[in-house]
């Protein structure tokens, strides 16, 4: 009898609690209907009565070397990080001996992620996922004179190494130009400030000239890829539909600024002519040696098409 009494009391209080919940839910539903400006969403789950608010954007971050410890404190530890279109900075902190972590990855709308993996491991995973190795983009860059620190340009995603050799197999930071809206130069400390989407700011230990050089390189690589895309789409009578961001990034701004000059100064055929020029020059250097005076004389007979941007 005692057990039955306790069971009845439990059912009684549960019924009252459920009625109160249903009444609150009904009132909130009416309130949301009369106030459309309230965007909060809530869901009823089968196992409990929980409310889930709409996700909010993170606060804008100031990312600089002197803020490493602060950035680590607000970061979540994660393994096997895969950068994506939302990534705007992969920060190498392997020289920061006070922390066991080696890389911090920053996303536009999420808290930073920290990992013990090195930055080249994180980026190699990204290159493998994209299906185009960094060495392929580097060869494309090499054909137009980019010998080191080649940006990784693939479609609308552009990652630039702060420093680097001939491959990605070294630890360095990579900033995503596809989310950079403008740059500012601080003459006092010699650093470059990049303003990114969602008001995030990157403070890079590079000069303005170095940044502009990388921007021009990325713009050239993006333009060459666009030549390929346009040519292939035209050959198959297809149309490309893109969904541009609300505000153009610095590479798109640069391409748009000189768009009217592109058809006259550089074509798809020009690029193949330049590949012949590059390959011939490469073979002559291999045979005659770098600096041989006959190389320049021979190369004068080849047409060197202009590029939209100098670097």
In short:
With 311 residues, the protein is an alpha+beta fold. Among the domains are: 169 residues, no CATH class; 47 residues, no CATH class. It is built from nine helices and eleven strands.
Brief descriptors of the model:
single chain, 311 residues, alpha+beta, seven-stranded mixed β-sheet, four-stranded mixed β-sheet, 9 helices, globular, ComK, Competence protein ComK
Shape: globular
Strand content: 5-15%
Could you say which structural class the secondary elements and strand pairing correspond to? alpha+beta
Arithmetic mean of pLDDT: 77
- According to DSSP, the number of beta strands is 11
Radius of gyration: 28 Å
H/E element order: HEHEEEEHHEEEEEEHHHHH
Arrangement of strands in the largest sheet: 2-5-4-3-8-7-6
Helix content bin: 40-55%
Main sheet attributes: strand count, strand direction, barrel closure: 7 strands, mixed
Spans where pLDDT lies below 50 across 5 or more residues: 34-56
Q: Kindly report how far apart the N and C termini lie.
A: 90 Å
Please report the number of helical segments.
Answer: 9
